[in-house]
Amino acid sequence: MKNSFNRLNLSNAVPSVRQVTPAHIISWLSAGWRDVRANPVPSIAYGLLFGIGGDLILLASIGRPHLFAVAVSGFFLIAPLLAAGLYELSRRQGSTPRATFIDSLMVFRRNSKSIALFGLLLGVLTLIWERTSAMAFAGLGEASGSNIFQLASRTLADGNDGGVVMTWLALGAMLALLSFVISVVSLPLIIDRQVGVTRAVLTSLSAFAGNVVTLLLWAACIVALTLLGFATLLFGLVIIMPILGHASWHAYRDLVE
Q1: pLDDT per residue as tens digits for the range 236-250
Q2: Closest Cα partner for 122 from 90, 60, 76, 64?
Q3: Taking the CB of the first residue and of the last residue of the chain, which one, N or C, has fewer CB atoms within 10 A?
């Protein structure tokens, strides 16, 4: 009985995490690029889904400032889930035969319950952000304009609604940071070791607590590269997102023992 209890405690333990330096960020990006070159067709296929799908969503919402802003900013909240197939490609790197795009989709059948629960968690955060944005834009009233560009120009021109916009941006940054903290290693851990959501999130919190500076820099790097992709009408994401997805897998492998 005692041995059974000890095995149960061991199975429920949160994996140990390592401390890494900011220099690891370059190695993660380099490893991500290597994985893209090793799996060019499935990796670029995911990139095309990010780019073309994102463009269609933005074009559909450009006349609705509230939905346009949520679509752009909400991308950062759900990106970890969207990159699950890229994690699987990196996990199976070096396997024979080489993993295909269809093979990578099988990740959603393995430990599907935990992946679905984690997706629900990110979905709740996204819903909170959507409702917060709806209230913020309602507070702007007519100043919100007919599209996001009118909103930006009017806000910069008169500055009367600067407080509302700054509060909205601050809340968005907090939610994005929370999403990053709970997901920095969660989904790769769920995919790799088929653990539950609670263990995965606790491990992610532990990894962030032990590597605050490095992971904040990593988050800033992700945001900067993603915004660069948005600046190219999302077509830059065809290459950028596969690199970041694969790199996130290597970050997990370095962070979690």
Answers
A1: 999 999 999 999 999
A2: 76
A3: N
